Amino acid sequence: MKITESSQLGFDNVSILVDGKRWFPMMGEMHFSRYPKENWEQELCKMKAGGIDIVSLYVIWIHHEEIHGEFDFSGNRCLRDFLETIKKCGLYSILRIGPWAHGEARNGGFPDWLLEDAKENGYEVRTDAPRYLEHVRRFYEKTYEQAKGYFIKDGGPVIGIQIENEYGHCGGKNGDEGEQHMKTLLAMAKEIGFVTPIYTATGWGGAVTGGMLPVMGGYCEAPWDQRLTEIEPSGNYIFTRERNDHNIGSDHGLGAGITFDMDKFPFLTAELGGGLQVTHHRRPIASGTDTAAMTMVKLGSGANLLGYYMYHGGTNPKGKLTTLQETRATGYPNDLPAYSYDFNAPLREFGQMEDTYREVRLLSTFIHDFGNDLCDMAYTEQPGNPLKPDNLTSLRSAVRCKKEGSSSRGYLFVNNYQRRYQMAQHKAVELKAYAEDGKTVLAKFPARDINNGDFFFYPFNMPIGNARVMVDATPLCILDNGDGHSTYVFYKSAAQAEATINADGDLDGNKIIIITRDEALHSAKVMIGGKEHLIISDAEPVTKADGSVSLMFATDKAQSLTFRICPALPKAPEGFSKVDTDSEGFEVYESIRHFSNDGQVNLTEEDFGLYAISVKELNPEANEVYMLMDYVGDCANFCIGKEIATDSFYTGQLWEIGLKRYCRGELEAKVQINPLLEEDKEKIYLQEWPEMQNGKACSLRGARLLTQYDVKIS
After folding, report:
1. Is the pLDDT of residue 476 over 60?
2. Residues 448 and 488 in one domain
3. What does the pLDDT read at residue 246?
4. CA 228 → CA 5, 388, 687, distances in Å?
5. Is 329 helix (H, G, I), strand (E, B) or coil?
6. Residue 387 belongs to what H/E stretch?
7. Would you tell me how many other CB atoms lie within 10 Å of the CB of residue 3?
8. What is residue 300's three-state secondary structure?
9. Is 161 helix (H, G, I), strand (E, B) or coil?
10. Which CATH number characterizes residue 661's domain?
11. Containing H/E element for 565?
12. For residue 323, is it within any domain?
């Protein structure tokens, strides 16, 4: 969907509207002040390649005015340059201007001086106190100076503004007083110049919205939860009309519900957990499957915008006075790493593209071709669908459909995944989609086994040509063949031997192909030479700001690069040769050269928990070189000279660090590990505990390099 300064952008109670047409966008959070400026363009292009349309971002007050009156929007903190880069990459943006942000920042993003001023002068922050509003106005004005000229009305990328965050849920006022404060902030923002078609406010947990468009959230776990045990099954894996996630911010008190009329607003999400940022006391690992299943459930429950927090991890900037992370010492319930804000996000702290990136891309590929049509399909409750997540035996299902003439068309959603819990197996289930009355059968699908961990959705009465089609496979995308016909691509699960296509009518020259889920997971739709193509590869296709397409991949050995593409290319890309055409019509290309994993890394133990790292001979052609460290301990710092570059709380995962921001050819660094103790089991939740030696775990067991290449194919 193309939005310009002349577009009419708004919403009704169903979805966002662009010039009266429904728009289902994908949104992902990235914080410019937590990422090196020289890499913004590459990372934003990766976000777009992963399916993101809208970049949401906090302007974190303490990152810009840590010292009262000294504003810093330079370098990595330059909002203006970030918005310019968003525009260059063909993306849109929603600015989250606070003033309170949270975002695991110190004081929720408030500078220390603001809290000291409030204490000295006897006023309460996050209220209509005149002195507080004076400070907010100054911050808003400085933020506006950066954003001026980048609103959609000016031909820029900013289509919306979020006011405050979790207001009335995590701090702030409730009821009429809270609603009035949100209206005061909105009026101030508009007066200063923040004029956009959309104004949003977070709506979960009793938060007040001041009449703005509420956006919702959902996380697969709760690292802010103060318990040190496995927590109850997440309600975000249940199909329901309920939009509220009572787990978000549960360290501040259980959510009190919804303060707005859900019938008047569309179901939009802004904070689906793209991962989880671990806290010192609670360290769950969010997997790609955790995020994918939760997202599909939200989609099946009626969501018409999928927004991820975070979509891109980062590193906290250096403070002039303090470190800038949330801590218990600053009055918050959690201790966070001083620097790493990795979040196990789709794109991680150093831009790693891992399983969650591919899982989100899989759904976004579907959304881009089918989502606008899906908006009009209402959530339809299904008989037998459980409403409590601790029910691990009943099959969870939902339908989204709309009536057309005498029949209905839509999708049947099925989820048999619950993070960290075993779901019952369902043998030879004949899946049925029911109408709203719970009795009328809209569609039947062939019987199949549904195993623990399965989640999928099937279309029924999908219009393809002159036919109405039912497929027991999940739609991925539509490829325009350029001759007035299209190729519809579906994928089947690993458990299915084959998928069944039932077409009532003539496909009229259109084609259906079915690939495996693994192939779909490693696929991406791109434009080459003005024509749509589907690429399948272990490498990640990324379209650059200039329209060229490259493949990014990381290797730990010498290897060639292969990819499959459909439809055929007019000629082999430079540096590649065609080696085959497979049975599904995909051309197979292999690189002429082999790509090596150059570089050496050596470790020396200098003292208990202290290691010297020497990295040499990094390949200058590498786009990035990742160092993967296998350590055990409570936490660790990665130091260059006397400076901590980044840090880690141990989870059991490899600690991955991108080296290019610190060096080009060689690097001398140190790793300091704090021991994990047997008695820490009373203080810390880990999904799996390492083996202890004499009651301690504290060692760097090894390190290796991965070399990432960026290989142009068009």
Report:
1. yes
2. no
3. 63
4. 51, 23, 10
5. helix
6. none
7. 18
8. helix
9. strand
10. 2.60.120.260
11. strand 562-566
12. yes
pLDDT of residue 249: 57
Write down the pLDDT at residue 111.
Answer: 98
Check whether residue 677 and residue 564 sit in a common domain: no
Q: How far apart are CA 38 and CA 22, in angstroms?
A: 36
For residues 416-452, b (16+ Cβ closer than 10 Å) or e, as one string? bbbbeeebeebeebebbbbebeeeeebbebeebebbe
Is residue 583's pLDDT more than 90? no
Do residues 341 and 193 share a domain?
yes
696: its two tokens = 């301690």
Full residue range of the structural domain in which residue 396 is found: 377-460
Residue 157, both tokens: 């990328």
- Same domain, yes or no: 164 and 312: yes
Both 245 and 292 in a single domain? yes
Tell me: the pLDDT tens digits for 616-645? 999 999 999 999 999 999 999 999 999 999
Q: Print burial letters for 571-603: b (CB count within 10 Å at least 16), e (below 16).
A: eebeebeeeeeeeeebbebebeeebebbbebee
Strands (E), 306-429: 306-309, 314-315, 340-341, 378-380, 396-404, 407-415, 426-429
Nearest-CA neighbor of 49 among 535, 390, 500?
535
- Which helix H or strand E contains 189, and what residues bound it? helix 175-192
Closest CA to 434 of 408, 471, 472, 461: 408
Assign 650 to helix, strand or coil.
Answer: coil
Please write the tens of the pLDDT for every residue from 552-561: 999 999 999 9
Rg (CA), the chain: 25
Question: Where residue 254 falls among pLDDT bands split at 50, 70, 90?
Answer: very low
- The SS3 call for residue 575 is coil
Q: Is residue 4 domain-resident?
A: no
Q: Which two tokens stand for residue 177?
A: 């007083």
Give the residue from 567, 492, 485 showing the smallest Cα distance to 526: 567
Residues 306 and 388 in one domain: no
Percent of the chain with pLDDT over 70: 98
- Segment 196-208, tens digit of pLDDT: 999 999 999 889 9
CA angle, 643 as apex, 642 and 649 as ends, to 5°?
Answer: 120
Contact 500, 486 (CB under 8 A): no
Which residue type is seen at 356? T
Confidence (pTM): 0.98
Question: Are 485 and 577 in the same domain?
Answer: yes
Spatial contact of 706 and 626, defined as CB atoms under 8 Å apart: yes
Answer for the pair 562, 536: CB distance below 8 angstroms, yes or no: no
Give the total number of structural domains in the chain: 4
Give dist(CA 105, CA 608) in Å, integer. 32
Contacts of 648 (CB under 8 A, 6+ apart): 337, 340, 631, 635, 636, 638, 655
Residue 379 CB burial class (10 angstroms; 0-12, 13-18, ≥19): buried
Q: State in Å, rounded, how far the first CA of the chain is from the last one.
A: 24
Tokens of 543: 């379209």
What type of residue is 697?
A
Pairwise pLDDT comparison (38 vs 259), residue with the higher score: 38
Q: Are residues 432 and 363 in the same domain?
A: no
